[in-house]
Write a structure and sequence with these properties.
It is a single chain. This protein is mainly β. 6% of the residues lie in helices and 29% in strands. The strands form two sheets. Strands 1, 2, 9, 10, 11, 12, 13 and 14 form an eight-stranded antiparallel sheet that branches. A six-stranded antiparallel beta barrel has the order 3-4-5-8-7-6.
């Protein structure tokens, strides 16, 4: 689950490219995607929503994104999923592993993108809250995920779950079903060095992935959850390519904006 930004660019750079290659040869992209039916988690497996009941999907114009239920009326997703801070005209699909049918489609009342959101260079403060126009009824497949405390630390190498409908890089994979994968949290300083060419990380970012690559979020997974022990640690944000060696996925660090979430939602 990685790469970033709203206006998704085509994946670039070859597997294992040096982190010091000229930045024009390496592309950072958003985890959103124009063709959701063709995009999935890389290196993952099919999963049912009773395993990740907080997962939701939605489309904003041509961009497809995921998100996480954090309350009866609230979804947390990525700021770069939206071309502007204006309230989107959209619905969120909950309770279905299928991106085309099933579950419930709930209208969004308003969106609240973080006021410090900045997509220049590496995306920072990449968070957006969606307020639904009615409360969700919680079930085994529709349920909120626990949030961390403000600046709650995350242990390096702990295995966490990523999920979404993003690119799998395998044309033979199922075209409509939700996928998930397990990835370890990477040391912040190590990841910062890997992305030095992009200006490095900020304290609002956290990395997850294998050093050798192979498992990751990809275009179409933007805004989806990085869940560690059923707690929402990250929001799929950006990265270099998909599942490439030496370039883990970068996620918005939820613990960095916990107070902001509480102030907006009272959760």
């Amino acid at each position: 689950m990685k790469s970033i930004l709203l206006i998704c660019t085509v994946l670039g750079a070859s597997l294992g490219a040096s982190p010091w290659m000229n930045s024009t040869q390496r592309k950072i992209h958003p985890w959103c995607g124009k063709h959701p039916a063709r995009r999935r988690i890389v290196g993952g497996f099919l999963v049912t929503l009773d395993s990740v009941p907080w997962q939701v999907s939605f489309r904003v114009k041509k961009n497809f994104c995921g998100g996480s239920i954090i309350g009866a009326r609230w979804i947390l997703t990525a700021g770069h999923c939206f071309p502007s801070s204006e309230d989107p005209q959209l619905t969120v699909r909950v309770g279905s592993e299928n991106i085309k049918e099933g579950g419930l489609e709930v209208p969004v009342k308003r969106s609240i993108r973080h006021e410090n959101f900045n997509r220049l260079l590496a995306v920072d403060w990449d968070f957006c809250l969606l307020e639904l126009d009615r409360n969700l009824t919680f079930t085994d497949t529709i349920r909120p995920i626990e949030l961390p405390k403000q600046w709650e630390p995350v242990e390096n190498d702990i295995m966490c779950t990523i999920s979404g409908w993003g690119d799998t890089k395998n044309k033979n994979d199922d075209q409509t079903k939700l996928r998930a994968a397990l990835v370890p949290i990477m040391d912040q300083r190590e990841c910062d060095q890997l992305y030095a060419y992009k200006g490095g990380l900020t304290s609002r970012m956290i990395c997850a992935g294998f050093r050798e690559g192979g498992v990751d979020t990809c275009q179409g997974d933007s805004g989806g959850p990085l869940a560690c022990e059923n707690k929402l640690v990250g929001v799929a944000s950006w990265g270099h390519g998909c599942a490439q060696a030496g370039y883990p996925g970068v996620y918005g660090r939820v613990a960095a904006v916990r107070d902001w979430i509480r102030g907006q939602t009272r959760i």
